[in-house]
Specification:
The chain is mostly helical. It contains four helices and no strands. The longest helix is centred in the middle third of the chain and has 25 residues.
Length: 95
């Protein structure tokens, strides 16, 4: 598969549609994320927000009493996401 076909598949468009968008708009359309990846982005964003809140509290000298369970839960979620991403990558037809 060449790069143009790969890009058209990622953008959920035919090669012809992709070329027309590039020619007339000057840029390629944004790739369409699969639902699995969209879920991952949402989960990673939630984790980032939680870590930001914890970091802000720690920098202010506050040690929440429930910090260890929270960090354990975040680690668990990150491990699940990593497992799913690796499984998805192994099943990818580009390999």
């Amino acid at each position: 598969m060449n790069q143009l076909e790969t890009a058209s598949e990622a953008c959920a468009q035919t090669v012809g549609q992709l070329v027309r968008v590039k020619v007339f708009k000057g840029k390629f359309p944004q790739p369409v994320l699969p639902k699995t990846d969209q879920r991952m982005v949402i989960e990673l964003n939630k984790i980032g927000v939680n870590l930001n809140q914890v970091t802000k509290a720690l920098n202010a000298g506050l040690w929440p009493k429930d910090i260890l369970p929270l960090l354990s839960k975040l680690l668990w979620v990150l491990e699940r996401i990593l497992d799913e991403l690796l499984t998805h990558d192994r099943k990818s037809k580009d390999r």
